[in-house]
């Protein structure tokens, strides 16, 4: 049995200029990220996230090794729904982790 993730859509923000108040203006590009695992957070994680961030973790994403995207505070799409990442991205040392994934990030439902 081989474990394989799904392809999700990641909204990547690109700086396109500045407004009249010198604030950055961004446009979203949507990139496919293959082999992302999607799991449920534990009940302890849900309680802790509500206490720390005021947000309810819907899923935890496992990101494949070698991925260089910024996963902090970005929108992602999967299961025909939109979510937003929150909290810190947890990363392990690639060479010490036997499977294909070495980062984790939590997502909340985004409307």
Plain-language structure description:
- The protein starts with 5 loop residues before the first strand and ends with a strand.
- The protein has a single domain, classed as Beta Barrel (Thrombin, subunit H).
- The chain has a six-stranded antiparallel beta barrel.
- It is built from one helix and six strands, in the order E-E-H-E-E-E-E.
- The radius of gyration is 15 Å and the shape is globular.
- With 111 residues, the protein is mainly β.
- It has one helix at 43-53; strands spanning 6-18, 24-39, 59-64, 75-78, 81-91, 101-109.
- The longest helix has 11 residues, at 43-53.
Q: Could you give the topology of this structure?
A:
Layout: E1 6-18, E2 24-39, H1 43-53, E3 59-64, E4 75-78, E5 81-91, E6 101-109
Antiparallel strand pairs: 1-2, 1-4, 2-3, 3-6, 4-5, 5-6
Q: Can you give keywords for this protein?
A:
111 residues, 53% strand, mainly beta, six-stranded antiparallel barrel, 1 helix, 10% helix, Thrombin, subunit H
Oligomer type: single chain
Radius of gyration: 15 Å
Overall 3D shape: globular
Could you please say which CATH topology applies here?
A: Thrombin, subunit H
One letter per element, helices H and strands E, the order comes to EEHEEEE
Number of extended strands: 6
Largest sheet: 6 strands, antiparallel, barrel
Class, according to the CATH hierarchy?
Mainly Beta
Strand order of the largest sheet: 1-2-3-6-5-4
Q: What is the number of domains? A: 1
Indicate the proportion of strand residues: over 45%
Individual helix count: 1
Name the CATH architecture.
Beta Barrel
Distance between the termini: 36 Å
Given helix and strand content, the structural type is mainly beta
Low-confidence stretches: none
